[in-house]
Each structure stands twice: as structure tokens, then as C-alpha cells.
Amino acid sequence: MKQDVVILAAGKGSRMKSAMSKVLHPIGGIPMVRRVLMTASNLENVSLHLIVGHQGEQVVASCQDFSTNEVWQDNPQGTGDALRRVASDLDPVGSTLTLYGDVPLIKRSTLEKMQSAGHDNSLVLLTTFLDDPTGYGRIVRDAQDLVKAIVEHKDATSEQHQIKEVNTGILLAPNKFLLGWLDRLDNNNAQGEYYLTDIISMASKDGVNIVTVHPENIAEVTGVNDRVQLSWLERQYQQEQAQLLMSQGLTLLDPARFDLRGNLTVGLDCSIDINCIIEGDVTLGDNVQIGPNCHLKNCTIGEGTHVYDNSLIEESTLDSQCVIGPFARLRPGSQLGANAKIGNFVETKKAIIGAGSKVNHLSYVGDTLMGDGVNVGAGTITCNYDGVNKSQTQIGDDVFVGSNTSLVAPVSIQSGATIAAGSTITKSVEENQLAFARARQTNKNDWPRPVKKS
User: Closest by alpha carbon to 426, among 410, 444, 448?
Assistant: First the structure.
């Protein structure tokens, strides 16, 4: 049977103190509303409905790769009002799962547990227990422990305030009942809003079985209303990712100082030191060692490679046994062969660097095709940009480039050539040639040093 999934994402989120819609703030590098959609879209046989309002154009734009029915909730008047806006789009013989764009860590397994508990005459509530339930709607049960109603905190009596079981807002209801309940909602309450939770008492009166299901942990059902809650949920997410990776064999020197903002695939016996950020899709081969304060983004790092402290590798591919850093930056399009070395304060961009080649110190290599066994001296730069166009530098196998050299592209240095230190090379160098391009040194005897004028 087809199931409707409605994601509420119309709220302004004024407590975030932000010009951006609340649901677009990220957890683990992904906007919260996208996380909810990712989870919901993995359920079987569902139709997705996205309720938008404040800055809805940006919310829709951020989720355009999902197949969603966008429904506008201008001048929102509560959760019940949101469901009423989408009621005409719901399958009359299906069921509706209600989720929230600011509750990003709900698990697929929990939602599937709710689906298993539901049927044509059952309403399924996701509830949890809190030591301090202040602000949450209370689950009111009768003497037989059956759910009779949900009472919002502001409308609850002092006795009801003592109830520890609270509503998460997530529920699954059969549409044959839900559509009628939505029509019967009113806003006669302290907030003057249409509460979706009011359908619980209607379900009880109509003889519909009300079933409760509980999440694995509180982070699953925690919503974000301000920056403090956002940061807490971020750490919960990161802790969970760290534990999962360690269970797969990754060594994290300090799991509390590790951030994953994408997907990380690791081989055997890999290690990541403190304060590292993994972004996008990153793959580590066996025995890869990542030093502290490194940032890896959309890259593949071959087995046995060692990335030293404070290095950034972005959209690059490294073969086995490479050595990177410390303080190295590999920009998009960098490709390193086996046993290549990129040393301290070296930057590469759109550079193919052959096996065993070394760029050890203080150099820039961009738009370059470099062969195997090349040695690039300190202070070398490829001058690849003339202010309008980018040009390529080609360096053959076993070339030696002396320190403080400028290679002005387009230029070709053929295999076995040697470039003398301090040269500015503007013409191609043939195989096994020595090239030097620098002013002749002149020494003057008994030259008087300048003195300060009085």
C-alpha cells in the first residue's frame, strides 16, 4: 500500500537568529531537511510531500533532486494546519507519516518499526521518556494504560506536567480516519493554533487503536530550535559516526575531535589523528595514516600513504606509499603516482605527478604533467597563468629542477634534463640538456657600503 510522507519545513526558526531558514542549517555538512528527506526516500513505496513557508524558495531549491510535492503554508497556524494544506494530495486509502525538517537524525529503522506496528485501524505514535519533559506534549493514558490524548505543555494541568512520556510529533495515521480528523480540528487553545496532536483524542473516541513506538535514543527525535541545540545534535551525530567507523577498524586518536561531513570508506589499519575534517566522499586504502588538523575532501588516498599535519587534500587521487605535508595543499585535479612526495608548504593544482617524483619544499605546481622520478627544488613555481589563459607545463622523467626556478608555461622540459637553480625557463629544454637562465654574477673589490645620511 502506498504511503504518504509529509515533512514539515515551513517554520521561521526565529531563535536561530539567522537569515537562513532553520531547516537549511547543516548537521554533518548536510542541511537538516535533506537528512530527513534522505531517510524518508529510503522507505519503500512512499510519496514525499514537503511543506514550506518561510524562505520556501531556498528550501525547495536545496531539495530539488528529491521527487517531492511542494505545498506552501503561508501564515502557518500549527502542525494541524500544515497537514490540512496537503490533505487533498493524500491517498484516501493509504496512510500518512508525519516528519519534521528540523528533526534530522530520525532513523530509517525506527520509521520501519512504526510501519510494522501500523494497520488500517491503528494510529502509531513515536514517544519517548524524559527526566525533564518541560515544553513537550504529554502522553495521557487511561487506567488500562491506553493512550487517550496528547496535552501540550502550555495547556497541561499541574498533574499532567508530572508525566514523563512525551510526544515526539512523529506519527503514522490511516488516511481514511486522518482526513476526517483534520476537518474537525479547531484552534481553541493557548496558542491559537491547529494542533495535529488533537487527533489523538479523536482517534481514541472513534475506537482507533493507538500504538506507541520508541526511538533507539533521544538524538533521533531531538528538534533544533537554536544554535545550542544545533551544536549538541552535531556532536551526537559525530559521536555516532566515529563509533561506527571504529567498529569497522579505523583508529581515531580522539573520537571527540573528529568531524565527518560526508562518506568515509577505510581499509585495514588506518589511523586518523585529532581535529581532522572529512568532507564529501573520501576513500582510504590500507595502512593510511592521517596526521592532526588535516582536511580531506572528495579524494582517494592509496595504501601506505602518510599525510602529515595541517594538510588539505581536495578532489585529488593519490597512489600508494605517497608522503604528503606537513602544511601541504593539493587542490582539485591533483593526481600522484606511487611513492610521490609533496612536502611542506607545497601547493598543487590540476597536476599529474609521476611515480617517485618529489616536490619537497615551498613550491607551486599547477597545470602540470610531470613524469616519474622528477626532483623539484625548493621555491620552484610553474607560471601557468598569463592573466587571461592557463597553460600547461610538461616535465619528462628523471628531470632535476634546481631551487628557485620559474617555469613559464607553455613549456616542455624533456626527460633527463637539468634546470640550474635560480633560472627562469621560457623555452623548451631537450633531453639531457642543462638549462640555465640567470644574470651573470659580478663581484666588485673594495666596494664601499652605503652610509646613513645625517
Answer: 410
